[in-house]
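Researcher: Please translate sequence to structure tokens.
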Amino acid sequence: MRMRFDLERIIDDFVFFCFFIGNDFLPSLISLDIGEGSLDNLIDLYKHLLPNMTDYITEAGKIHWDRAEPFIKELADHEVYSIKNRLVSMESAKREKLVSFDTEFN
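Model: Translation complete:
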């Protein structure tokens, strides 16, 4: 890492990016569903970006948007990937006809 390891600052950054998943007051991004492993994906994304970061995203409750930009860019790329996967899943489910209303039984 380019910066000194600081667990407290990492926790602050973690709290920041958890807001993208949403809470009782903020809606989540469409591609970030806890049930689909979004929290793990966010952590993996942060771990991927951390070695190249020059400083943490947050500092004393302030968000440094210039530092957050690479994270948000990667998150946007993930969103496109996630939406494409959902469309593929919906198409395959449609082809499989999970529910049939045919009256004939063979």
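Researcher: Any highlights?
Model: The radius of gyration is 19 Å.
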